[in-house]
Amino acid sequence: MTTHSDWHKADIIAALHKKGTSLAAVSRNANLASSTLANALSRPWAKGELLIAQAIGLPPAQIWPSRYFDKKGAQLPRPTRNTTR
């Protein structure tokens, strides 16, 4: 099985810039503090990963494969909290 590594933080930020946005702007557009989405760059956070991936135009699993697939390629469960208010 071919394993793919996660994107480097700088590559994620560069991809956002190529789309004409920034990590802080994506955070603010999601009604989060400017620095909140930076958490998804260093640790698993399904909601943050989804917001970043949507801004880039790719599925989160393509950006962070280690967070979505085990070493054998099986998909890992990635629950998101239901935050209906």
Automatic annotation (TrEMBL):
Occurrences of domain Ner winged helix-turn-helix DNA-binding (ranges): 6-78
Domain of life: Bacteria
Gene3D superfamilies in alphabetical order: lambda repressor-like DNA-binding domains
Entry keyword Transcription: yes
The entry's keywords: DNA-binding, Transcription, Transcription regulation
Pfam families membership: HTH_35
Sequence similarity: Belongs to the ner transcriptional regulatory family.
Name of the protein this chain belongs to: Helix-turn-helix transcriptional regulator
